[in-house]
User: Fold this.
Amino acid sequence: MTPITEVEGRRLALSNLEKVLYPATGFTKGELLHYYATTADVLLPHLRGRAVSFLRYPDGPEGQVFFTKNVPPGTPDWVTTAEVPRSEGPARMVLVQDLASLMWAANLVTEFHTHQWLVDSPEEADRLVLDLDPGAPATIVECCEVALWLRERLASDGIEAYPKTAGSKGLHLLAAVRGASSDQVSEYAKRLAVEAEGALPRLALHRMTRSLRAGKVFVDWSQNAARKTTAAPYTLRARDRPWVSAPVTWGEVEGCGAPGLLAFEAGDVVARLQDYGDLLAPLVEGGSASRLP
Assistant:
């Protein structure tokens, strides 16, 4: 029998709690739900007000993996939804606003991905993201080198960047911005990527051509496009182990000499929250947003 749980006054059917989702570690669906419940206080502020795309993997990362952008069938009527603009016409998407909605969505077994704008003002971007993607044999170690250059470059324009792991092999840099459209942020991000390639020609790359990526770090500026979404902070990833897209300190970025130093699983992140709190809190607390030059 599927257990029924009450969360903030909402009744939820949480299914298959003993199902192993990550065979490499034995990590179960019940543990996934517990992780999201434990991290809800820091995760929810990064989801609130944003249309959420779900990358679902109900049978684990080795099973079928698929994106769900529209409101899934069977979504409870108490889950907040909103109409969002798309090039092919408006669509209705889910907003994960509270713990009950988070646990309902987590029961679908999903990665959480968000746009760089809020549904109340889709014409204005409030985030800049640079997705640093290493081409083998480059690793997150090389991503850190590029990230440090980008931090200083952004700082020269009065923009403070915050790092997090991609939860797979790369690194994300996030910054709070205001007063610009997604197109304008994309143009600025591309300019930074081009400058990074010019300053670090043996290490950084701004072009998407895969044949050029071997041993280099692709600075993916295109994630700022209005239609694109990026893995949210603290989301679990559909990888061989329960890796998390985890915030890290700049000190950790500076000291990263081996890929394993910036690889965090669900249990690691829960422990890190006790030590650091939410390292990305400035992004959602207000007052830190900068205008593009």
Q: What stands out?
A: The chain has a mean pLDDT of 96. The longest helix spans residues 29-47. Helices lie at 29-47, 99-106, 140-156, 182-199, 250-254, 266-276, 281-285.
